[in-house]
Amino acid sequence: MHxxxxxxxxELCSLLGEFLKREGxxxxxxxxxxxxxxKALAGAAELIVLDVMLPGMDGFEIxxxxxxxxxxxxxxxxxxGEDVDRIVGLEMGADDYLPKPFNPxxxxxxxxxxxxxxxxxxxxxxxxxxxxxxxxxxxxREVLVDGRHVELTTFEFDILDMLMRSAGRVLSRDALMENFxxxxxxxxxxxxxMHVSHLRKKLERGSTLIKTIRGVxxxxxxxxxxxxxx
Length: 230
Description:
Layout: E1 2-6, H1 10-22, E2 26-30, H2 33-41, E3 47-51, H3 59-69, E4 74-79, H4 83-91, E5 96-100, H5 104-119, E6 129-131, E7 134-137, E8 142-145, E9 148-150, H6 154-165, E10 170-172, H7 173-181, H8 191-203, E11 210-213, E12 217-220, H9 224-228
């Protein structure tokens, strides 16, 4: 598994690189934004760990340009307490975020969880699904809402796939977190909630498709009547 670290802290990159290599990863490091983007788009890495604050080009701009060409998984590194950075990163298509400082074991665990999720994506053979005016095709990774094409990030697509295939049933936040991140939901980890919020903004045009079940999780509505039901 090939990981690209893009962070201007050379000492941190060296420490993380050595740790990840001992964990079985192949690791490349870049310390400047433009060089990091070039390496990211070269196509060798299977996952990118990307810091927000970088010389030359910041992490958000790198992520934006990566997402124009690639769906490679990206973990953003943010300063502790910088909620805005986390929200912006997830909204732009990051798969996960990790606030500094962090334990290298936590980073390794998150890398493995994301790569496992990518490996077990629904295959095209699982077939497209149509529910309540939404059509999802895992073969082409396309989503249509009443015939309108909707552009989703890889993570948003996979969450929507899980919700639609369980339409009418409530999926707990814990189940979603364990499936996509391989960790339990905590009161302060809003990753899933932010992805679902972005999904709603992209999918819904006046009618509710994804309903929040307070204190439990989320439900994809099979019909417009489901949205109104308590």
